[in-house]
Design goal:
The chain is elongated, with a radius of gyration of 25 Å. Helix content is about 25%, strand content about 35%. The strands form four sheets. It has a six-stranded mixed sheet with strand order 6-7-8-3-9-10, with helices on both faces. Helix 2 packs across helix 3 (about 110-120), helix 2 (about 95-105) runs parallel beside helix 4 and helix 4 packs parallel to helix 5. Strand 17 (about 320-325) and strand 18 form a beta hairpin. The chain is α+β, with helices and mostly antiparallel strands and about 375 residues long. It has two domains: about 5-235, 3-Layer(aba) Sandwich (Rossmann fold), CATH 3.40.50; about 240-365, RNA polymerase II/Efflux pump adaptor protein, barrel-sandwich hybrid domain (OB fold (Dihydrolipoamide Acetyltransferase, E2P), Beta Barrel). It starts with 5 loop residues before the first strand and ends with a strand. The longest helix has 18 residues, at about 170-185. It has helices at about 45-50, 95-105, 110-120, 140-150, 170-185, 195-200, 220-225, 230-235; strands spanning about 5-15, 20-30, 35, 60-65, 65-70, 80, 155-160, 190-195, 205-210, 215-220, 240-250, 255-260, 260-265, 275-280, 290, 305-315, 320-325, 330-335, 350-355, 360-365.
């Protein structure tokens, strides 16, 4: 355990009859950008508060660089938090806000000036040093809050939904800035969010939480492409589920019988046998929608099904389709990689073909 930088070891936290965190164990490496992702009430903020020292686990221990910090007070652990509401002192200038903790620690004046000026330059806020928080934009306030938390080089920086109060464009810009700041300081960042897009774009690894448990812990691409459960597949982006039974196996592939739908061919990554039942996930962007069937040379190597377009939503970057196919409804995304008006037009109530490659489906749960 001493070789791990940060360890939650069988940690449980209850609030009355509610078990917010249930026997969670996970390890985080030094310098990692790690996200705790999940819906409201899944336990992610409770984990963060226990690490910060604001809550104490009912059982289990927390270790930081081999030291047991479970019972330490917040000011006794070098773990700082950036909150959604910034928590800046309104009557202090930006410079003084950042210098506050250094003065509290009675650091020499020359060293304080050097550290504050350096981090202001890093966040590109030097020209705003003598302004007050009410003179800054939301994004600027967030940068100052991050700088204040980082100025005395904590071991871990906790970010509790720090971008939730910002508008979409500013959130997208701040994501890039956060990633840049992390690369510059090299400190371990632990990021709490319910927004899977934020977690996917920032994180080295993600822990997906559900009802106090870690459902899956992996790199973003694995969580999206190879979800461990139906919950993870549905929470991380959109997907289509097909529940069925294996009717035959041919080499690395199998055929699945689905009620109210034609037989599906899929890559048998779980090595299932005839008779086993499963849930199959197919992401909307993996599904093609065309007025004509795919080229004959593709033959049996793909799944092709007749469908009818029931709804269309144009999103600029892509168009989303909802289709009736057999007794099931399917969603599909068509990216606009080329000029849309030059492409084949699919509209409401059109009879179309939906098709995808067997390798583009993933078995999320077996029974």
């Amino acid at each position: 355990m001493s070789n791990e930088f940060l360890v939650f070891d069988h940690v449980t936290k209850r609030f009355g009859a509610l078990t917010a965190v249930d026997d969670v164990s996970l390890s985080i490496t030094k310098g990692e950008f790690f996200s705790l992702l999940g819906p409201s009430g899944c336990g992610k903020t409770t984990l963060l508060r226990m690490l910060g020292g604001f809550e104490r686990p009912d059982s289990g221990r927390i270790y930081l660089e081999g030291k047991d910090i479970t019972d330490l007070q917040p000011n006794e652990r070098r773990v700082h938090t950036v909150f959604q509401n910034y928590a800046l002192f309104p009557t202090m200038t930006i410079w003084d806000n950042i210098a506050f903790s250094l003065r509290l620690a009675k650091m020499p004046k020359v060293e304080i000036e050097e550290k504050v000026d350096s981090i202001l330059e890093m966040i590109q806020m030097s020209e705003h040093a003598w302004k007050y928080p009410n003179q800054l934009s939301g994004g600027q306030k967030q940068r100052v809050a991050i700088a204040r938390a980082l100025v005395d080089r904590p071991q871990v920086l906790l970010l509790d939904e720090p971008l939730a109060a910002l508008d979409l464009k500013l959130r997208q810009h701040m994501l890039i800035e956060l990633d840049t700041i992390h690369d510059q300081v090299g400190i371990t960042f632990i990021y709490v969010t319910h927004d899977q897009g934020e977690a996917m774009s920032l994180s080295d690894r993600i822990a997906v939480l559900n009802r106090g448990h870690v459902e899956q812990l992996d790199v973003p691409a694995k969580i999206y492409e190879e979800p461990s459960s139906r919950f993870v597949a549905s929470f991380i982006g959109d997907t289509n589920f097909f529940s069925g039974r294996i009717t035959s196996v041919e080499g690395d592939y199998c055929f699945i019988e689905v009620d109210g739908f034609p037989q599906i061919k899929a890559y048998n990554d779980k090595k299932l046998t005839v008779g086993q039942t499963l849930d199959l996930s197919v992401r909307p962007e993996k599904i093609r929608v065309t007025k004509t069937p795919p080229p004959p040379e593709k033959g049996a190597s793909i799944n092709v099904f007749p469908s009818v377009v029931r709804d269309i939503v144009y999103q600029g970057v892509y168009t989303k389709y909802w289709l009736d196919s057999g007794e099931l409804k399917i969603s599909a995304l068509k990216p606009h990689s080329r000029f849309l008006l030059d492409q084949e037009r699919v509209t409401w109530n059109d009879s179309v073909f939906v098709w995808w490659y067997p390798d583009d489906a993933y078995m999320v749960e077996t029974k």
